[in-house]
Task: inverse folding
DNA sequence: TCAAAGTTTCAATAATTAGTGAAAGTTATT
DNA sequence: AATAACTTTCACTAATTATTGAAACTTTGA
């Protein structure tokens, strides 16, 4: 396989994975493009490489910056903005996990806590089932939460090590 | 908060989380409905509870069965099919992880393996960056893969224990 | 074998989400 | 302060994804 074909395939695959995880395809593709770019790219270059409009490129790059996956750079003597991606995959993984925790898990835990104080008759099976389900999901969510906190603090090898150690 | 209001909120929250993770909202809501149902429900009851069409209810229930989250049940003397959800959250989490691994991570690893054999000139920075990025993502993906395999085999407390132990 | 009860399919439609591009806004330079 | 280079916004349109509902299909029992 030739390099350009491979780059293309990588961008497609990353886009597909992204869309399966609720991240818009273009955003994942721009991220992929920057991941395999050996130097920072301008908005123009991103537009060109992925055949997308200026508006789309701009918003997508901004979103990637919000997610902490991409940064702006200025080259001395030039007005144009250049964009480059964090390339350390462990940092990327932590960053994504952190953002999603903030946007999704934290609000979910808040709702679950509200729901677990609902009062009712312990003899009512509808109440009992509700209570049990919510309590159990709440416990799981809190464990995930703690697991993520560990991940954020951890070095990569340390993290995986702690998972694998026990399960040879 | 009253039980019915709480049930409603739970269904909405679960639907929202689902859609943020690339799972169609209705599917997540039907799952939520069955999770807090104290007895198996018929297609009619699902349609009624969530105001969705027969076709939608049918397809969604089938999808949930494909995901291994819901099962059919027949009551003796009745022709109707009843549906109920697995309620053990650890089993649910494993099941979801397993399905997504099969559908997404495994194909991704396959692509990454294909891409990592691309040949090129080590002095070409475009080639070097591509190679490095793909290799690193590949390593991460394989660690996630191993981590999931551990999870599938593990008991819940054992799994979390192994993560928390190291990070007090 | 027929018809009633129930289930599934799928073309048509609706709802949602993503993308465009031109206009407005901003910033740096002369 | 005027202009040119560049960035951002947002109303409109396109593309995608989800849902409906009626027709086709299947199963059961009389």
Result:
């Amino acid at each position: 396989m030739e390099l350009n074909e491979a780059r293309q395939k990588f961008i497609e695959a990353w886009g597909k994975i992204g869309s399966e995880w609720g991240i818009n395809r273009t955003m994942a593709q721009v991220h992929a493009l920057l991941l395999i770019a050996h130097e920072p790219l301008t908005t123009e270059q991103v537009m060109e490489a992925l055949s997308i409009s200026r508006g789309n490129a701009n918003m997508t790059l901004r979103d990637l910056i919000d997610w902490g996956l991409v940064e702006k750079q200025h080259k001395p003597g030039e007005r144009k903005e250049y964009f480059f991606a964090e390339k350390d995959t462990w940092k990327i993984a932590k960053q994504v996990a952190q953002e999603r925790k903030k946007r999704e898990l934290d609000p979910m835990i808040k709702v679950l806590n509200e729901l677990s104080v609902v009062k009712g008759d312990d003899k009512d099976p509808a109440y009992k089932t509700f209570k049990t389900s919510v309590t159990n999901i709440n416990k799981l969510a809190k464990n995930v939460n703690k697991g993520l906190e560990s991940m954020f603090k951890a070095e990569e090898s340390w993290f995986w090590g702690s998972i694998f150690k026990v399960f040879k």
